[in-house]
Design brief:
It comes from Streptomyces chartreusis. InterPro entries: HpyO/CreE_NAD-binding, L-asp_N-monooxygenase_NS-form. This is FAD/NAD(P)-binding protein. The structure is a single chain. This protein is α/β, with parallel strands linked by helices. The protein folds into three domains: 2-199 and 545-651, FAD/NAD(P)-binding domain (3-Layer(bba) Sandwich), CATH 3.50.50.60; 204-293 and 503-537, FAD/NAD(P)-binding domain; 314-406 and 427-480, no CATH class. Helices cover 35% and strands 17% of the residues. It contains 17 helices and 23 strands. The chain has helices at residues 17-33, 93-97, 116-124, 133-150, 204-216, 247-256, 314-322, 329-352, 361-370, 376-385, 395-399, 410-428, 435-455, 461-480, 485-496, 551-558, 623-641; strands at residues 2-5, 8-13, 40-45, 155-160, 164-168, 175-179, 186-188, 190-193, 219-221, 239-243, 263-266, 272-275, 282-286, 500-504, 508-512, 517-521, 530-532, 534-537, 564-569, 572-579, 587-590, 595-602, 648-651. The strands form seven sheets. The protein has a six-stranded mixed β-sheet, covered by helices on one side. Helix 7 (314-322) runs parallel beside helix 13 (435-455) and helix 12 runs antiparallel to helix 15 (485-496).
């Protein structure tokens, strides 16, 4: 007769990339922090396959692609990762795919994807290609299986292909995770909420438009994940207004054109011609900016990698917080952020294209380091050192390229925007402008520092609402999260074919009861109104605990066991719609306890940690990887020390 500790139990709600990344970090940290003789049972709860989860599941259109090159996608820590746990390098998507053509080593556990189309894609995938989401699904499936294989034998993982509906249990006792398809809940010592990107019921504005569509027999699609959208009711030739010009629009454009049988023909000059099937609707697209997101770069740095961070890193964030005053992001923080992005841009320009500069780099950077971003001397320095205006970084023009422009006719604007898009694609695919990639890398570095700034609690409520969650989020997406260049060339072909029409900036949506049509107007073509029988909100659902479609979060919210992030000061109150968690370890803030719930942790997209991306570009010290490592170490320590000697179980050996 001997005694042994009871098994520790962890339930993870959600089995997508965020949960997979956490498992990888548990496996990496277990040799140091977990007793190899102790049993740990991990339960994953998700109706979608573990690894890819919902967003990256294999069962979606082969037309849908990533907006990152294959070599720029990794799930693994590397030498840039500032983590307490061990760095465990692993292959990028491109490096992993190379094994199937014999161009690279095999990565255990080795198995060819069962889908022959995915396997064929992986065998020809180049690092500079933009993979299908189904290829990414296969990669994430492998990362999940590799994480399982690296866990100690006493750590087991079980997947429950169902939905978690609620969590109950006292803060000082076991937690019960209730499932949709079984009466008996899972009992756990700790619960991790890692559901990823969530849908939400339509906001009031969308409800109004949906009601209009029902009354008049029209089509209306509120914000939705593109792979889940039912577009079958849209008729050939039907006029459709799409509000939103980001990645959701690009997906919808593909599904409604190629997805309906149209094809693209490559001409002798490299341009594309669209050959319609006759089943396409007519798409009228506009947004606040009125232009599509900037094309992704398709080249590598030609100079050395810029040493980042330099002007906006932990030291600068700590210094801002130490001032002890309320901070306005645009006034107090953006000048440092802009200077960091500028440093990345000019570092690449001076090192890779010195013939287009007029000062030695040491002289330029010495002066650059001393000056404030908006100082007159900084403008003079850049003008003197960078003769070509196209090589200078101008954030205002980049952010709002249609500001101050108006066109007399819709046709004149179509010509203008086609030229704008063509020039953007050409620049983003021309290595002579690799300084844009230097700026992009600095933009990623800036993004990685912002969770620490937010956690410091010094940003005013209005600045958090209007500047961080508002302007900055849109600016970052516009600059860094654009489509591959070939998608924008397809957009140009669709525009020339009359399938896509551009509405311009500042688009306003209305309704006309007399005709039963949706209307769109904007500032770019004054006096022009488009009437359509369908309206699509071409962007993803915004976070909202009040309207979330996730039953577990909805139930906890209604029970007062979690709270929305609310930032208030004397001048403003900001309700972000995000789940409030501890900035240090992700513990859920439970209003009924007056603070953190010791047994519930939430990670990723729905939370106010704002470390959203579950996978990342290599060598960018990804915030999500840092958070995964910290949480994995915390939960292993807590589960190791949780049981007292009175809680052991007896076993015959």
């Amino acid at each position: 007769m001997s005694t042994m500790p009871a098994p520790a139990v962890l339930v993870v709600v959600g089995a997508g990339p965020r949960a997979t990344g956490l498992l990888e970090r548990i496996a990496a940290n277990a040799p140091e922090l977990w007793d190899a003789t102790r049993e740990l049972r991990i339960h994953l709860v998700d109706p979608h396959p573990p690894g890819p989860g919902r967003v990256w599941r294999r069962e979606q259109s082969e037309l849908l692609r990533m907006n990152s090159m294959a070599e720029d996608v990794t799930m693994f820590t590397d030498e840039s990762s500032t983590i307490e746990g061990p760095v465990r390098p692993g292959p990028s998507l491109a490096e992993w795919a190379a094994q199937f053509s014999g161009r690279g080593p095999r990565h255990a556990p080795f198995a060819e994807p069962a889908d022959p189309e995915v396997l064929a894609e992986l065998r020809t995938l180049d690092g500079a290609d933009f993979p299908t989401r189904r290829a990414q699904s296969a990669y994430l499936d492998w990362v999940f299986r590799r994480a399982l294989a690296q866990l100690p034998p006493t750590v087991t993982v079980e997947w429950h292909r169902t939905t978690a509906t609620s969590v109950t249990g006292p803060p000082d006792g076991p937690q019960h995770v209730h499932l949709a398809d079984r009466a008996t809940p899972l009992t756990a010592d700790l619960v991790i909420l890692a559901q990823g990107h969530l849908g939400s019921t339509p906001a009031a504005e969308h409800g109004t438009h949906a009601g209009f569509a029902r009354r008049h027999g029209r089509f209306h699609l509120p914000p939705e994940f593109s792979a889940d959208a039912d577009l079958s009711a849209l008729r050939p030739g039907e006029d459709v207004i799409l509000r939103g010009f980001g990645l959701a629009f690009i997906d919808l454009m593909s599904l409604l054109t190629e997805g309906r049988g149209g094809t693209f023909r490559t001409e002798a000059d490299g341009s594309l011609t669209y050959l319609p099937s006759g089943r396409e609707p007519v798409l009228h697209v506009g947004s606040r900016r009125g232009v599509p997101y900037h094309s992704k770069t398709r080249y590598r740095l030609r100079g050395p990698r810029p040493p980042l961070p330099r002007h906006f890193g932990p030291a600068q964030v700590d210094a801002l917080l130490a001032e002890g005053r309320a901070l306005d992001l645009r006034r107090d923080v953006w000048p440092l952020m802009a200077k960091e992005i500028g440093f990345g841009h000019y570092h690449e320009l001076f090192h890779a294209h010195p013939e287009r500069t007029a000062l030695p780099w040491p002289d330029f950077v010495a002066a650059y380091d001393r000056l404030d971003w908006y100082a007159e001397q900084m403008a003079a320095l850049v003008a003197a050192a960078v003769p070509g205006p196209a090589d200078r970084l101008d954030f205002e023009t980049l952010d709002h390229p249609l500001d101050g422009l108006a066109f007399a006719t819709p046709d004149a604007f179509q010509d203008h925007l086609r030229d704008h898009i063509a020039r953007d694609v050409a620049r983003r695919e021309d290595p002579e402008y690799s300084a844009d990639l230097g700026a992009f890398l600095a933009l990623l570095s800036v993004y990685g520092q912002l969770p620490g700034l937010v956690a410091g609690g010094r940003l005013t409520a209005r600045s958090l609402a209007e500047h961080l969650d508002g302007w900055w989020h849109g600016f970052f997406s516009f600059q860094a999260s654009g489509p591959p260049g070939f998608r924008l060339r397809q957009l140009l072909a669709l525009s020339r074919a009359g399938i896509v029409h551009f509405l311009g900036a500042g688009v306003r949506i209305g309704t006309a009861e007399g005709t039963g049509t949706f209307t769109a107007t904007g500032a770019t073509v004054p006096g022009h109104t488009v009437h359509a029988t369908a309206l699509i909100e071409a962007y993803l659902p915004t976070p909202s605990l009040d309207r979330t479609e996730d039953p577990l979060l909805r139930e906890l919210h209604r029970a007062g066991a979690l709270s929305e992030e609310v930032i208030a000061d004397p001048t403003h109150t900001h309700r972000s719609g995000l789940l409030a968690v501890s900035p240090t370890d992700g513990h859920v803030i439970d209003p009924s306890l007056g603070g953190e719930h010791p047994r519930r942790i939430a990670l990723g997209a729905p939370t106010n940690s704002r470390a959203v991306a579950a996978f990342a570009r290599p060598r960018t010290n990804a915030p999500a990887f840092r958070q995964n490592d910290a949480v994995a170490r915390t939960l292993l320590r807590v589960l190791s020390s949780h049981f007292s000697i009175s809680e052991i179980v007896t076993s015959n050996i």
